[in-house]
Amino acid sequence: MKTTMEKIDNSKVVFNIEVPQAEVAKAVEKAYRKLSNKINIPGFRKGKTPRHILEARIGKEALLDEAFEILASPAYGAALKENNIEPVSHPEIDVVTLAEDKDLVFKVTVVAKPEITLGQYKGLKVTEKAAEVTEEQIDAQVETMRNSHSKMVVAEGVAIADGDFAIIDFEGFVDGVAFPGGGGKAHPLQIGSNTFIPGFESQLIGIKAGETVDVNVTFPTEYHAADLAGKEAVFKVTVNDVKRQELPELDDEFVKDVSEFNTV
């Protein structure tokens, strides 16, 4: 294998790689064996299909592409090692010549880890600034910790409110006909998250577990499903459960669980 390297700038390099024709021929034969074991061709067992029949079925290009995959990675790896290059980007590959009876020639462009020369840093003096933390920042962090240790609990007998999680079964209809992808079972929907069609979530506020309601909406004109865009729809929605976030009490036990301190 022959490899030359050209530096484009301080970080980008181009490898010109040549693999001898003999290695290409071996790789093509290896590619044939690999593909013949994968592809079903009527009248032949896997791995027993004659090469000329396999080529007629999948094309010579498919064999060459597979052979290239076999050769390119180790050749590129050897070029990196030979030139002591550490890449920091995915390689861009440009095939120049790929044929069974010729040397394989391809180029690889890659961004290399730049060489950095440190200046004088010993003896530098740094003024350390004391961190200033406000009460508001402390309170915000405490609430973040409480939220991260919260749990969802079933709220018995309550009406859905903004922020609640409604566990719903639903099915959508346009002109009285159910449409594909318009239904779901036991779907957790947070009211106010705006993850459903505009107007859907707000119509569930005030509904209790066990109740079934019709939710009337209009799909946005730019809706991704063109056959639904701009159309009016009715969703039959059954609320199975209403769940709310339960925050842990801010007490000594909570502090012990989440920090190295023992008291609030």
Word description of this protein:
The protein is built from 5 helices and 9 strands, in the order ββαααββαβββββα. It is of the alpha+beta class and 264 residues long. The strands form 2 sheets. Strands 5, 6, 7, 8 and 9 form a 5-stranded antiparallel beta sheet that branches. A 4-stranded antiparallel beta sheet has the order 1-2-4-3. A hairpin with a 4-residue loop joins β1 and β2. The longest helix has 24 residues, at 60-83. The protein is flat and about 80 Å long. The model has no long low-confidence stretch (mean pLDDT 91).
- Individual helix count: 5
In the predicted model, the low-confidence regions spanning at least 5 consecutive residues are: none
CATH superfamily of the largest domain: Trigger factor ribosome-binding domain
Strand content: 25-35%
Average pLDDT level: 91
Distance between the termini: 69 Å
Per the principal axes of the C-alpha atoms, what is the gross shape? flat
Count structural domains: 2
Radius of gyration: 32 Å
Q: How many distinct beta strands?
A: 9
CATH domain fold name of the largest domain? Alpha-Beta Plaits
CATH level-two architecture of the largest domain: 2-Layer Sandwich
Major sheet size, sense and barrel closure: 5 strands, antiparallel
Class by alpha and beta content: alpha+beta
Helix content: 25-40%
CATH class of the largest domain: Alpha Beta
Order of helices and strands: EEHHHEEHEEEEEH
